[in-house]
Amino acid sequence: MEENGVKRSRADAVSEAASKKLKLGHDVLPKAEGGVNYIETDGKTCSHAVALPEGSEDASTLPPAPRPGPAAKEFPFTLDPFQRTAINCLEAGASVLVAAHTSAGKTVIAQYACAMGLRDNQRVIYTSPLKALSNQKYREFQEEFQDVGLMTGDVTIKPEASCLVMTTEILRSMLYNGSQTVREAALVVYDEIHYLRDKERGVVWEESIVLMPKSVRFAFLSATIPNAMEFAEWIARMHRSPCHVVYTDYRPTPLQHFMFPSGGDGLFLIVDERSTFREDNFQTAIAALTSSAADAGSNKGKKGSVNGKKAEESDIFKLVRMIMQRKFDPVIVFSFSKKECEALALQMAPLDLNDDSEHKLVEGVFWNAVDSLSEDDRRLPQVGALLPMLKRGVGVHHSGLLPILKEVIEILFQENLIKVLFATETFSTGLNMPAKTVVFTNARKFDGGGFRWLTSGEYIQMSGRAGRRGLDDRGIVMLMIDTRMEPAVARSMVQGAPDTLHSEFHLSYAMLLNLLLSEAADPESLLKASFRQFQVERSLPALNQRIAQLEAERDAISMEGEEAVGEYARLQQAEAEGRSLIRSMVMQPRHALPFLQPGRLARVLTDGADRAPAEQEDSVPAQEDSQPSTSGRQGQHTVWAAVINFERQGRADAGEAEAAPGAKRAARYIVDVLANCTEDSLPGRGPKRRPRLADASTPGQAAVVPVQLQELDCLSSVRIYIPKDLRPPDARQMALKAVAEVQRRYPEGVPLLSPEEDMSVKDSAFRKAQRRLEAVEGQLAKHALAFAPDLEARLSLWDQKQAVSAQVKAAKREAKAAASLILQSELKSRRRVLRRLGYVDEDGIVTLKGRVAATIQSSDELVLTELIFNSGFKDLSVHQAVGLMASLVWREKTDTSARVSAELEGPIGALREAAKRVAKVASESKMTVDVEEYVSSFRTDLCDVLAAWSRGSKFGDIMKMTDVFEGSLVRAVRRVEEVLRQATAGAKVMGETALVELFEGGIARIKRDIVFAASLYL
User: For the Helicase ATP-binding domain, which residue ranges apply (predicted)?
Assistant: First the structure.
C-alpha cells in the first residue's frame, strides 16, 4: 500500500504480522503494543515502531503522515526513508529515537529540528557529550540559522537564542536550577544518546531526561543499538507520550572487511559488501600468520620500535603504501595507545602524500590556527614537530594532543589534506569524519586487567568510519592480526551485534543534595524513573518464568535414596577440602624446597591454574589425569611432571601466607617442570600464555612450564635423569618418556614422599587435619553406598540437582532485587553520611554546608566542602589553592615522583585529613569504602605543576616538570578552572568574600595562553 508517497507494508496494529516478533536491526522485539512498519524507497529501507504509554493501546501505530504545507527546511538531496519518517514524527509532535549507522545522515534530523523551532517560534536545545562536538555543531547551525547560541561551561554565546547548543552537563545543571530556558524548550535533541551507557558520565543523560518537563519532546540520535524499543518504552512510560523508533540497518556505503596477517604479503577478503563471511579466505589468512611474526609481535613498531628493521619493512608501512598506490585514501589507522600512534606516524617519514599546492594549503591552515598563540607557545615541541608531518599528509589524533592541534588536524582531515591519520578509538565517537579506509593495527586491546579481543560493538563503532557517503562506492576495513584467531571469534567481532544500550545509573552526593534542594523531584522518584530501574523491572516477568522452569527442572531430577546420596556427596566434598588443606601445609617452602631437585617427579594441578587470566575465555578443559584426582569428583585434575628447577620471586600477597599458625608471610616460588603440553597452547600458536598441561596419553609435546609452588599436589620419592641441555626437542621428549615409564612401572600409583617421615611436617595443625581426613575417609568406606554399583550415576544426578538448586536461589535473589527499588540501601547509607557530616539536618533539610556541596559537580564534593568549612583554604596563596585543587581533579598515575614542595605539604595534609574523615564516616555508614585507598586516590602528581602555571610559568617550562602528554595537562588545568568556578559559586552561597576573591584569583591566573586558546570552530 502506498500513502503520500510512502510505502507501508503493515496496515495497522491488528494485522496478523503485528502480533509476531520482528527483527529491528539486531533486535527481536515482542510487539504487544502495536505493529511494526517497513518503509522502503529506491531500495533503501527502515523499520518503524512506536512505544505507547499505558492507556493508549488504541492509538495508531502507523508512521505519521507528512505535515501539510511547506517543510521547515528543504534539503538539496532526496531524503532517505529513515530521515523522512523521523521528520514526520517530529512534525506530528512526538518523540523519536533514530538508530542508524555512522555517516548514515542522522544530522539531518537535528538540522530539521532547529528549523522547526525557528519556524514555530519555539526553543530547541541540542545536546552532545563532547565540547568539541558542541563547538562543531554550533558552527554548522550558526552558519545556516544565525539564531543559534552555545553553552559549554567554557564558552557562552547568545544564551537567549532560539536554538541552543550545549553539553549534557550544562543541561542537567540548568534543570537542577529551574532554568527558565529549559522550561521554554519544546524539543530537545540528544545526539549520541548511546553515551548513556558510559560508566562515568552516562548518569548525566538519565538525570536530564528524567528531570525534563513532561511537555518537552525528544529527538534521540544514536548508533545502531539492539534494544532500541526498550529505550523508547522507557521514554513513553516516563513522559506519558508516544516515542517512535526509526531504525535502519541501511549503510549508504557498503563495507568490505579484509584481514592482513602479520608477516604476510597481502590482504584477504573475509566479509564482502553483502555481509557474507568468507571462511575459506579467513582460514588462508590464518595460515599465512607465521609463528615467527607472532613471536615478534608483528613489525608494527610498537613503543616506537620496528624490531631492528628499516621503517619501510614494517607491516604498517607496507600496508599504507599499498593503500596509497590503490587510491584507497584517506585512511584512518586505529591504534589503542597514544604512544603507538605517534611511533607509527614516525614510520611514515619516507612518504610524502601531498603535492606542492597541498603543502602550501596545509601550511596556511596551520599558521592561521597557531598565529593566535604566543611566540613561546608556537615554539612548543609538539607544535613544531607536527607541521612537517602534516605537510606530508600524515596526522595523529589522540587525547594527548593540544586541543588546538587536534582541531587543526580535524579541519585538515575534513579537507582531504591529511591522507593517513593515526588515531585512538576516541576519534570514532562523536566526530563525523569518515574516510575511505579504516585500518586496525590490532584485534586485541588492553582493558586494564589483560588483553582481550575487540567486542563487536567496538569494532562496529570504529569500522563505521570507513566509506564516505556520495564519494565512495564502498568502504574498506583492514584488520591487522598477529595472533591466531578462531573463526567464531572473527565472525562475532566482524558481524556481531552492536553493544546494548544499558543504564550506568549511580548515585552521587551532589545529585542527592541537588534533588533535595529541587522542587522538581526527590531522590526516590529519580531512582524509580531511571532507565536502570525500568530495565530491572522489565526483567521481572522473565525472571519469574525462569524460576518456575528451574524449579520444575530441579523437581524432575530424582534418584533412589536421595538423602543418603547427599550425605555421601558431602563427605566426598569434606574429603576434598581436607586433602586441599593438607596439601597447602605440605607445600610450604620450608617443607617442599629441599626436595625440588632436578628430576624429582611432582604431581601438578591443572584445572585453570595453568592458564593466564586473560586467556580463560578461549581455553579448553583440562585433560583427565591417569591418577585419581585428589580434589573431589569435580575438582582439579592432575598430571605427573619432572622438576627442573625453582626460583623465588618477591614477596607474597597477604592471601599467600603460610597455613601454619603464627607463620610469617611466605615468599612466592616458581617451579619449572617438564610436562606434556597440548599443541594448540604452545608458544607461537596464540596470545602469550602458559602452555596447557595434559596427561602423557594426550597428543602433545614436551615443554618446560613454570608453575607456582602451591600448584604442586604432591612429590614422589622417585627421581629421573634430566639432561643438562633441554633446548633440543628430542632431549625433552626422552625425559618425558622416562616420566611415562615410571607411571607404567607403578600401576598402583607412583610412590610418594611421606609428609611426616620424609618432609618433616610434624606440627599439631597438620596432625589434626590428618586425623580429620582419616575420619572422613573411614566414614566414606563404611557408608552404605560405598559399594553401590550405580553410585557414580546417582552422584552425577545429585550434582545436577544441586547445580539447578543453586540457579534457583540465584534467580530468586535477582527477582527479589528486581521487585525492590534499585540502590535503596546505598541511598540510605549516603543519606546517613550527609546527616553525620552535617550536610542535612535530622529532618532531611539541606544545611548551608549541603548547599555549598551541591554547587560542586566536577570533583569530590564532600572533601572539597570539608576543606572549605574547616579552613583548609585559610591563609593560602592563590598558587597554593590552585596546586591543592589539582589533587582533587587528577586521578591518573604518572611515572614521575608524587612528592610536593614544602609550601604545599600543609594544604595536602589537610586534604588527606578531610578525605580520611569522609571515608571513615562513609565506612561507618555501611558504604563500601577502603579508607586508605580513598585517601591515596587524591594524587599529588600535578600539584606543583599547576602551582607553577598559576605563577605565570610558560607552558613549555611546566611540561618539563611532568611526563604527561600536553593534551592531558591542558585537560587538568581546565578541570581545575572548572572546579574553581564551582567553588566560587559555593563561596558566594556562604557569603565568604575572601574565598570568592581567592578562587576568582586562581581562575584569572590559570586561564591564559595555549591552555585556554579559543576553539577554531567558534
Answer: 87-243
Question: Which DSSP letter does residue 666 get?
Answer: P
Give the C-alpha separation, 669 to 310, whole Å: 41
In angstroms, the CA 34 to CA 18 distance is: 6
Residue 628 near residue 695 (C-beta atoms within 8 A): no
Indicate whether 390 belongs to any domain. Answer: yes
- The reported pLDDT for the residue numbered 657 is 38
Of residues 416, 400, 406, the one with CA closest to residue 370: 406
Task: State how far Cα 919 lies from the chain centre.
Answer: 27
Q: Which residues pair with 828 in a beta bridge?
A: none
Backbone angles phi, psi at 223, to 5 degrees: -65, 170
Going by C-alpha positions, the residue among 945, 951, 933 that lies closest to residue 1005 is: 951
CA distances from residue 543 to 32, 812, 813, 933 in whole angstroms, order as listed: 19, 8, 10, 37
CB of 822 closer than 8 Å to CB of 527: yes
Examine the domain organization and report whether 219 and 296 are in the same domain: no
For residue 818, tell me if it sits in a domain. Answer: no
- β-strand partners of 708: 670
| pLDDT one-digit tens code per residue, 865-904 | 999 999 989 889 999 999 999 999 988 776 665 678 889 9
Quickly list DSSP for 869-893. Answer: HTTTTTT--HHHHHHHHHHHH----
CATH code assigned at 719: 2.40.30.300
CB 350 within 8 A of CB 312: yes
- 358: containing domain: 255-495
Of 376, 379, 374, 299, nearest in space to 343 by CA: 299
Quick one: 301 and 212 in the same domain?
A: no
Is the pTM here over 0.85, yes or no?
A: no
Q: Tell me, yes or no, whether 596 and 664 share the same domain.
A: yes
Give the closest residue to 38 by CA, choosing from 248, 351, 346.
248
